[in-house]
Amino acid sequence: MPAKLNPASKPSPASARDLPSTGRLITTAELATHNTPASCWLAVRGKVYDVTSFLDRHPGGRDLLLFAAGRDATQVFETYHQFKVQGTLPKYLIGDLADNELPVFPAPSPFFVAVKERVYEHLRTNVTSDPKWAVGMWVRYAGIYSMVVAAWYAQLWVWPQGGWAQWLAAVVLGFFCAQIGLNPLHDASHFAVTHSPWVWKLLGATHDYLNGASYVVWIYQHMLGHHPYTNIPNADPDIATNEPDVRRIKAVQPWYKHYLHQEWFVPVLYGVLSIKTRIQDVTILYTLKKNDNIRINPLTAWHEAVFWSGKAFFVFYRLVVPVVFAGLSVGRTLALFLVADLVSSYWLALTFQANHVVEETKWPEPNERNEMSIDWAEMQVATTQDYAHDSAFWTIATGSLNYQAVHHLFPEISQYYYPMIAPVIMKTCQEFGVKYLVQRTFWDALGSHLKYLKVLGLNTHEEDLKKKEAKAQ
């Protein structure tokens, strides 16, 4: 194990912001126009870099830079690189960022530096292979894809006459389609499986073809939105709401009468997640061109082809094949589709909600200049809840998201190693006074989500918040 690091003893790494001013101010509006292969700019720590010439030499592939282009990519850059990599940036420097489109964070704190240093040292000491490589994960992927094919085939040709077995096959299909989202898709979207951009692309494409939902939209929502800005209103797409919305999950949302008892009806609505996602894919990419406040850059030919062919194949294998080739009625086909979709939706939605939308997690907000006062790594722990660390079932069945704080701090590491590095992170949190939330079971975590919905649904909640704020002052 690495030697103990005193919280105050190690300074934060040199920041890109420490570079001298170029004398050229670039607004976020101007930066946003440089988001193509012909002109690829991005910002890190208040400095703007033209990385167009680096696109084809980037070790992570050109797609990653094109996703990040035209925006402040500080948190993504610092998450997926060691701090020393900042030394490669100055040669591409072209200007200073004049304003903040989305929240910006202080330079990495001693906690962030220490936890990153200790986890990688622990992996170097205890893991002989690359932390992006684990044979066990490929076995898991193979099992997931095999079960999707087997369950789909069984409901059409093994038990085509109906009965409980056919419905069971639909349930199994839905569960393992959700596992595609929690495992190969999720791992690929964080580049946590091998160092090959083509592996990430191909694994991501299976989500398009087998689930009918877009890998590209997920990248923008999850990797560029949710992870950098976890639980921050108007920045994290995962907590985006309308006015009014079907549910109240943020204290900043005005209260309406229909929020009363939302803990009873909102979880039922989670069943439409899959259908809602497939429809929103189209509106996000081609109508809105943004997901909440995360802008969508122009698609490459590859991603556009995968998007539309994925939608077409999904309709073909889930709706056309059962009727035309397996001889099922339209009604039976739609019913089986709905059962599988409900299972997928509930499994995914409840897994995600139990991690962030719960009683004890924080909902940080920036000041009027879009500046955050909390360190980014500390915020990841504060906005996240773990559960069931001692359960192999929940670790496998949730794609290791029962170690959500571990995942948010180290998304680039294979989930296979989360149980190994969790004690290192928890010990570092304890040393630095960072509260680490973990529930004993999944049901405790889910219960916390339902209790949170209940509290936010009460019309007294805003008054309680005002009283707490007044008392704090």
Automatic annotation (TrEMBL):
Gene3D superfamilies: Cytochrome b5-like heme/steroid binding domain (3.10.120.10). GO terms for cellular component: membrane. GO terms for biological process: long-chain fatty acid biosynthetic process; unsaturated fatty acid biosynthetic process. The chain crosses the membrane at residues 138-158, 164-182, 305-328. Residues 23-98 form the Cytochrome b5 heme-binding domain. CDD domains: Delta6-FADS-like (cd03506). This is Delta5 fatty acid desaturase. It comes from Catenaria anguillulae PL171.
